[in-house]
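Our collaborator T.R. sent over the components below with a one-line note: 'Predict the complex.' Nothing else. No constraints on interfaces, no templates requested, no preferences about which chain binds where. So this is a plain run: every listed entity goes in together, and whatever single assembly comes back becomes the starting point for the next discussion.
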Amino acid sequence: MPPPSASIRAWPAEGNTRVPYWVYQDEDVYRLEQERIFRGATWSFLGLEAELPGIGDYKSTFVGEMPVVVARDEGGTLRCFENRCAHRGALICMKDRGRAKEFACVYHNWTYDLEGNLTGVAFRRGIHGQGGMPADARPEHHAPRQFRVEVFCGLVFATLSPGTPAVEQYLGPEIAGRVRRVMKAPVRILGGYSQIFPNNWKLYLDNVKDSYHASLLHLFFTRFRINRLEMKGGVIMGEGGGSHVSFNMMRTDPGAGEYEKAGMRTAKGDYRLEAPELLDSVDEFGDGITLQILGVFPNFVLQQIQNSLAVRQIVPRGVGRTELVWTGFGYAGDDAKTTELRLKQANLIGPAGFISMEDGAATGFVQRGVQAASDRASFVEMGGRDVASSESRVTETSVRGLWQAYRRHMGL
Amino acid sequence: VDLELRPAVEDLLARYVHCIDDGRLEEWPAFFVEDGRYRITTAENYERGLPLPIVYADSRAMLRDRVAALRQANIYEPQRYRHLVSSVLVERVDAKIAKALSNFQVVRVMQTGESTLFATGRCLDRVRIEGEDGRPQFEERIVVLDSRAIDTLLAIPL
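Returned assembly:
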């Protein structure tokens, strides 16, 4: 891989324990990420297969900044192609979602099948023998890029690179097993929304990978003993650092007052719930794990917080802006009581979530805090300096894993 | 449309938004009956019949929990709202219940002075005409946001 252009600075000599702040700020870095990460040898998450159950069902979404269409073709296979007309580059598909037999660019009525192949050029041979394209013109050669699509456990991923290993291999066996654990049955989509973060996309992924912050930022976790670092749990790292799982078992709480003794903010005060049924959880996986956060480089999060299940897709919207697309789900076999529990626990997540709202605040604080510190770096040595699975979650091992994967893809 | 009921319901809607915009959140749950329901969702979810809420409560106790969380638990930057409510339609269901539909805009004002159009949408209300103190109260308030995207976070209720 050629080295990045001279305008891109060198990574600190300490390696993965330092994150230089220019990675969140530099326009050249941002453009290079689009090429080397999002159009490179990574799998981008696009959504749940259950969103597109029928032939011709489609949605428009993004791989990095690239607009794409995901559609189910006549044979039932999911396809993904760039949402860019071969002719003049206009969007081929304007709608968020729908059902179609084909797509037609509104600008000059060029048409595409559900795989993204160019199928028609308006008046290609002219009218009454006049006008039209030269006989040797090959507009098909300018067709929108088509992705490799893989559906793993109902999750839809796409990559442009022929060299990206199969999704299961990309995740690694342990992380793939943790995906299977949550995607154990056909899902029922409960709905979705987006949260716009005032920060670089990597600050959000970094937040997801940071098992150390959760109970220190989120009072809800600590106060209600949903997630404390002394509970049984751990961090599992996938191959190459790009994928991780952090989990804990709240019923293994030793009941010790580690946070109280240490004077942590999140354990202070006497906040109590008047309606504690919000936190009544059911062990639907039968393994005692009450919280599992799974992050896959560069844009995917799978979440189980008690019985609240969701996938999150990270979409970069410029160097300092990120859209997080949330889709909440349950299982097709859920009864009304279980669905109600999931809807109540939806209060924990999203832009108004008792837990998740604070991630929107914290990552934006970093973007603003480092405004005048491009030549400085963050310090990531909690739990050591390596990238390895850990029984303790008082570690930043998965944060280092993220930067290890990032540097490998970027050539930094 | 019931013109007789309209002033009482408009008064409820006005008192409700002044309560929130003034920051008197402790008084907010009292606008609902004891088992009142409150839900914020997006137009997209609402129209597709998808139940995932952004905020959901089915009792005043849950509303009080949210206020307590905002006061004591959650981390967010100081901010205020300014609600503008318009186009109120009121319809009588029976002797005790009215339905109301109204539009709203909310400007969010941060401590930096930055003011932005934070949310627009409509409220679908089911109102008990004679509530606990003789004035109308919400049995149900569904806040349907026009946009599927929310900037940064939604702490203060709408």
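Summary for T.R.: The mean pLDDT of chain A is 93.
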